[in-house]
Amino acid sequence: MRIMPSLNRKSATPRRATNVSLPADLIEEARKLDINISQACEQGLAQKISKTRAEIWQEENREAIEACNAWVEEHGLPLAKYRMF
């Protein structure tokens, strides 16, 4: 199984053991499918962190985004006359 490049961790990154409680049926199914549970948890956590950061950024920049959208609504796209479609 290959980790997505944006989620790839450097091999020199220190690792820390942790306990994670998962439903027994998921563990059994992962083992049947030869899925590396630690790697799958790491990928899922990395994706969740990325999504949460994006949500925080959107909320922090909501007013600026709304102002930009309002400007475009009122004035149109700045380079619209150069669009080929």
Please tag this protein with its features.
85 residues, mainly alpha, 3 helices, 55% helix, elongated
Walkthrough of the structure:
The protein is mainly α and 85 residues long. It contains three helices and no strands. It has a domain at 24-77. 55% of the residues lie in helices and 0% in strands. The longest helix is centred in the middle third of the chain and has 24 residues, at 37-60. The protein starts with 23 loop residues before the first helix and ends in a 10-residue tail after the last helix. The model has no long low-confidence stretch (mean pLDDT 90). This is Antitoxin CcdA.
Query: Mind summarizing the main beta sheet?
Result: none
Helix proportion range: 55-70%
* Helix-strand string: HHH
Low-confidence stretches: none
Mean pLDDT: 90
- Radius of gyration, rounded? 21 Å
What is the beta-strand fraction? Answer: under 5%
Structural class: mainly alpha
Number of helices: 3
Shape: elongated
Q: How is the quaternary structure best described?
A: single chain
Distance between the termini: 41 Å
Number of strands: 0
Concise overview:
It contains 3 helices and no strands. It has helices spanning 24-32, 37-60, 62-75. This is Antitoxin CcdA.
Topology:
Blueprint: H1 24-32, H2 37-60, H3 62-75
